[in-house]
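Priority: low. Protein: ArsR family transcriptional regulator. Input follows.
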Amino acid sequence: MSPSDATAHPAKPDQLFDRDVEWADLVGFVCDPRPGATLGLVSGRRRQGKTFLLEAIAKAADGFYFDGHAAAEAETLHRLAERFGEHTRATHPPHWQRWEDAVDALLALGDQHPTPVIIDNFPDLVGPSPALPSVIHRAYRRLHQVRRHNRARLILSGGTPSLMRRLFSGPSSLHRIASLELLVRPFDFREAARFWGIRSPQLAVQVHAVVGGTPAYRGDLVCDDAPAGPHDFDAWVCRTVLNPRVPLFWEARNLLEEENHADRALSHSALVAIAAGRSTPGEIAECFGAQLTDVSHVLAVLQNRGLLHAEPDAFRPALTRYRIAEPLLAFEHAVAWPHRAAIEQGDTATVWQHARATFDSAVAAPRFAQICRDWATAYAGPGTFEGDPETAVRGAVSGPVGSTRLDVDVAVRGNVDGRPGALLSVGLARWNETMDIHHLERLRHILSVLSTSGEDVGGAVPACYSGGGFGPELRAAEARGEVLLVDVDRLYHGE
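Result:
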């Protein structure tokens, strides 16, 4: 190992919020002193901070960074050559006519020491140059055969994981030679609250229900405007996400702009249905009278783009339930979409006054339930459940024929004594409601129905998650060890 290789790994810049795990993974990859060129793939939805992260790692490790744009191949090669000349301090930039020449020159940067070579927005380059993944694959084969000392650390970034998989499929699959595959996710609910500087858990849930954990929504898209406190939330909504003069107002439309016209229209209808509480393909299709095959296609497209999550029902694994992954899309289709004309005419305050109840029931309540599920798997302390939680999803329990369907908001499964999939808890989540003993009685009934159907409920903990607090009888039941109670303070600050 050379002296330069033995230097300490570069520290994460102060201006890079959180992302400790991602930074450690990238630094470990680009600073790996072992011989042999390596490849890393970085993916994630747009506006998650991939570019900021990669620019920071390139600067910290003295690497080469190129931001790709959709353009003709000749134009891209010309721009890439200019950036390459600036990086190498060449008197004149090279004149590349083919991607083969450019890729060989970029990888040669790693001939002397580990060097990050980062190509961002890579999918935009593949459109005009569909052979580019194969060009890179062949270049790596040559390096591994004749220049095994080369330590180029090539990182290709951009797009959702499904898009990156499609780009790199086939006989020359880059996935086969990649030693790093990093997904840059939105901040989770706790990280998002810290990022926005929000201390009130109640306010944090409301803001998360609008903008989720996408970092870019905190800066330019709202002109760095954050709610001053719980009293400011309504006014903040009116001056940002419901304000046509603020970029965030248009962002939900931008998220769908890549679809063709027919799919885009059907996508909006599907999202409206999901925002209204429909979750299965059949329910969504029935909501607006579409063919199930057409709806299934659109749901698959939205899922591939990272805009929907598909999860099995907690008690009927063959039944898939969909939820909107990007909270801004849920807000748009439940609150803003039905009132677009009035909003664009400047009647924002009246619209929000009429839509406030819809926001609480159709946007904040489902988001609160998802926060509860995330807490159960990520933050619940040891011993909270009688086992190690692995999944927390929604589910529906069917009783005797003709009886009302029983919905479970937080069904936790995990490992108990080495048995995977054991039911650890069934829970109800209520955002704007004080929960009391009748909620526990409902959970007991659900557990009884599940037991009758053959589910092992012996270790299942009844749980109530509330944004409005708990009544005295339910608190008394908690004291007797009969129920788990989780309020917003525990969600954001406890285990």
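Residues 187-367 form a domain with the Arc Repressor Mutant, subunit A fold (CATH 1.10.10.10). The chain has three domains: 20-183, 187-367, 379-493.
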